């Protein structure tokens, strides 16, 4: 009973902490919006490099506040609520429930402190996994729409429309989720932000380098001039090849992911078969405390190995 109360208090404190962080991020987002409206039309000196051109470097060494670092670790972006299929509070409840269940059962085998710590770690891992899955799904949908969007801009420019009208045609004629992101980017432009800076903000929200390429292209064209339609057409061709390459890498990695799943479930299939052939082996294994600890250790190593394989496959695909 005391163990259950302790784990419940730990889960409640975890939910309260993460909920407070999310609420604080929401209030910070509203405050930044008010400041942006107040300072609309004023030049942002810090955002413009010395040469007047956007920087092509995608990573900077600027320091981030602690709250932003925590939300970034959880893969939760309060600036893009439309990417969340599951509401953030439901995701926190799922993570807390998973951590409570794991911590409760581990408390009987490894003790209360280790059980509570493992439960909190599992809860955070589940929350981060759900947020990451939703973010990756949203970003991949946008990534596949970028070549068609740039192609639409090229056709609009060749028809004689300015770049602003070409972007409005993308926001009007494309489907979600790219339509919402372009509409939000055009909203930034409407309140006085330059187009290249608005695109860089779009890059920071989605973490897609294609938007930074587009921002640099438009920034350079504004400063130097040239045939914008031809430049965007070349960029669309490059992005289209990147999309095809990403799909090919995903298809080639499907076999490795399948092998990783088979390696993970194979021991448990063998244990299930053994329970049907010689039931007393498995019964003694699970009734014995030592056997229960060994089963948990084996399950933990299986999950850890599967995650390591998935991480290696993802890194190889990104390279």
UniProtKB/TrEMBL annotation:
The reply on keyword Transferase is no
Tell me what topology the record assigns in the membrane.
Multi-pass membrane protein
Q: Which GO terms describe its cellular component?
A: plasma membrane
The record's keywords, sorted A to Z, are: Cell membrane, Membrane, Transmembrane, Transmembrane helix
Q: Does the keyword Transmembrane helix apply?
A: yes
Q: Which InterPro entries match?
A: T2SS_GspF_dom, T2SS_GspF_sf
Compartments where located? Cell membrane
Q: Where is the Type II secretion system protein GspF domain?
A: 151-274
Organism superkingdom? Bacteria
**Coiled coil segments of this chain:** none
- Residue intervals passing through the bilayer: 6-24, 85-107, 113-131, 260-282, 294-313
What protein name does the entry list? Tight adherence protein B
Species, as recorded: Neoroseomonas alkaliterrae
């Amino acid at each position: 009973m005391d163990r259950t109360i302790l784990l419940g208090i730990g889960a409640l404190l975890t939910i309260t902490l993460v909920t407070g962080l999310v609420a604080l991020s929401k209030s910070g987002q509203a405050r930044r919006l008010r400041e942006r409206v107040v300072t609309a039309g004023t030049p942002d000196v810090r955002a413009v490099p010395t040469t007047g051109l956007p920087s092509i470097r995608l990573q900077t060494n600027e320091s981030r506040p602690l709250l932003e670092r925590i939300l970034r670790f959880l893969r939760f972006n309060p600036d893009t609520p439309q990417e969340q299929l599951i509401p953030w509070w439901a995701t926190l409840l799922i993570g807390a429930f998973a951590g409570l269940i794991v911590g409760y059962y581990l408390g009987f085998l490894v003790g209360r402190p280790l059980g509570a710590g493992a439960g909190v770690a599992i809860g955070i891992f589940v929350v981060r996994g759900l947020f990451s899955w939703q973010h990756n799904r949203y970003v991949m949908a946008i990534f596949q729409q970028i070549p068609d969007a740039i192609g639409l801009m090229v056709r609009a420019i060749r028809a004689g429309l300015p770049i602003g009208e070409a972007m409005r045609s993308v926001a009007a004629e494309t489907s979600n989720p790219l339509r919402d992101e372009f509409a939000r980017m055009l909203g930034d432009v409407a309140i006085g932000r330059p187009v290249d800076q608005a695109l860089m903000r779009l890059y920071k929200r989605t973490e897609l380098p294609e938007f930074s390429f587009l921002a640099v292209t438009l920034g350079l064209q504004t400063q130097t001039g040239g045939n914008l339609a031809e430049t965007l057409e070349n960029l669309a061709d490059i992005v289209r090849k990147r999309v095809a390459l990403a799909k090919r890498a995903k298809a080639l990695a499907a076999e490795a992911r399948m092998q990783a799943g088979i390696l993970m479930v194979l021991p448990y299939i063998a244990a299930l078969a053994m329970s049907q052939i010689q039931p007393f082996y498995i019964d003694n294994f699970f009734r014995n405390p030592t056997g229960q600890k060994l089963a948990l250790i084996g399950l933990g190593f299986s999950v850890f190995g599967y995650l390591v394989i998935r991480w290696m496959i993802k890194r190889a695909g990104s390279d």
